[in-house]
Write a structure and sequence with these properties.
Blueprint lengths: L6 E5 L3 H14 L4 E5 L3 H10 L5 E5 L1 E2 L2 E2 H8 L4 E6 L3 H8 L4 E4 L4 H13 L2 H9 L3 H15 L3 E5 L4 E5 L3 E7 L2 E6 L4 E4 L3 H7 L5 E3 L4 E4 L3 E6 L5 E5 L7 E3 L1 H11 L2
Parallel strand pairs: 1-2, 1-3, 3-6, 6-7
Antiparallel strand pairs: 4-5, 8-9, 10-11, 10-14, 11-12, 13-14, 15-16, 16-17
Helix pairs in contact: 2-3, 4-7
């Protein structure tokens, strides 16, 4: 009897991150069939309704159009689930009892290998049992409650002669230049923030701020318009104007449009 080929699927709204994870999986389990699925709740639900469910699902918690828990509620996946997340440890405690494992981004090869071994130790009957234990309303309440209180509201900034506070509400956009992070406010003042963009992104409310590239995080209130650019890219014009070009990659354009239209 031929051994069954394991089918694993990745639902991730960041295409580069999805491809990176797919590449690591192919290296660790070259005999597996690895699928890349749409990074939205709506499209993923449609795919699961029309196709056999994979054996293992790597599921990003924050998808383009909402939390992945909504996908689970609607799709009722029979797959074992490994959550992938950029959230801090606060959420991880809940995820560990509602999935076979979790992977914090950026995903490391060693942690991924551990998750695969854990999956292989579990049996098919436990897949259905595991997913039936998922308490979606409770997870959503816990996540929403923490998010409401966890996002940064102000910064303590080093001035020329003293320290002062800068409210997040005042910031129009953040940008990084030569490993220094700057915040630009509506009065055109520039403030130095003692955080890299990657860390800053985790601390900002994603409903209000969007990271359009490695260099920029923008406030929705300060985006003036989007201009088509070469190869599917777009240029974002902001207020107050930035002295340069803010370009959005083709992979990020669709997510940016959905975010602005939400």
């Amino acid at each position: 009897m031929n051994k069954k080929t394991i089918r694993a699927a990745i639902i991730e709204d960041e295409l580069p991150a999805a491809r990176l994870l797919q590449g690591m999986l192919k290296e660790l389990r070259p005999e597996w069939d690895i699928l890349l699925l749409p990074g939205t709740v709506e499209e993923s639900v449609q795919w699961f309704a029309a196709n056999p469910h994979p054996d293992l699902l790597f599921l990003d918690i924050q998808l383009t159009d909402g939390l992945s828990f909504y996908f689970i509620e609607q799709a009722q996946p029979e797959s074992m689930i490994v959550f992938t997340t950029a959230y801090d440890e606060y959420a991880v405690r809940a995820f560990t009892v509602n999935s076979i494992d979790y992977l914090l981004k950026p995903i490391h090869r060693e942690r991924l290998a551990d998750a695969l071994l854990k999956f292989e130790r579990l049996t098919a009957p436990r897949i259905r049992q595991q997913n039936s234990l998922l308490d979606m309303p409770e997870l959503l309440r816990a996540l929403a409650g923490h998010q409401a209180s966890a996002y940064r509201t102000r910064f303590l900034v080093n001035g020329a002669r003293n320290l002062y506070t800068l409210a997040v509400d005042e910031v129009c956009y953040f940008y990084s230049e030569e490993k220094v992070t700057f915040a630009v406010t509506a009065d055109r003042r520039t403030h130095i923030i003692d955080l890299p963009l990657a860390k800053l992104e985790e601390q900002l409310d994603p409903k209000r701020f969007f990271r359009v590239s490695r260099q920029f995080i923008l406030s929705a209130n300060c985006i003036r318009d989007l201009e088509p650019y070469f190869n599917g890219k777009m240029v974002v014009h902001v207020t107050p104007p930035f002295d340069g070009s803010i370009q959005v990659s083709r992979e990020r354009v669709a997510a940016l449009k959905l975010w602005l239209n939400s």
